[in-house]
């Protein structure tokens, strides 16, 4: 467990893993009570996280949605940066639903991005 604890602002889970987002920009990936990866994913607080299959989406204070791809199986899972989406305001909510990524922003705007992969 990390020695410098920071507030948890968001969690996202599915049957395989748990994604934990912290106020200091750290995103952790857990599987079966084991910390698999901890990365400095954002500059500032990470307010939201969502997970869909092998994809992890996180967003926060830095006005960016980061996309990571999970690779591997069981305790050999690794997350690699896949890309990012710049936003006009702080990212406060994320939802992946029916092939679309919904991004809620502090300026009351909701952006929708369509996935080419189903």
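^ structure tokens above, recovered residues below v
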């Amino acid at each position: 467990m990390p020695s410098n604890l920071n507030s948890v602002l968001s969690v996202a889970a599915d049957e395989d893993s748990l994604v934990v987002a912290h106020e200091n920009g750290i995103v952790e990936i857990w599987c079966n009570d084991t910390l698999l990866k901890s990365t400095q994913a954002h500059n500032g607080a990470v307010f939201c996280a969502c997970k869909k299959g092998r994809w992890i989406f996180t967003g926060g204070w830095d006005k960016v949605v980061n996309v990571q791809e999970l690779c591997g199986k069981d305790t050999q899972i690794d997350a690699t940066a896949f890309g990012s989406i710049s936003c006009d305001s702080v990212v406060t909510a994320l939802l992946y639903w029916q092939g679309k990524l919904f991004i809620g922003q502090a300026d009351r705007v909701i952006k929708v991005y369509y996935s080419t992969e189903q």
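The chain has no helices and eleven strands.
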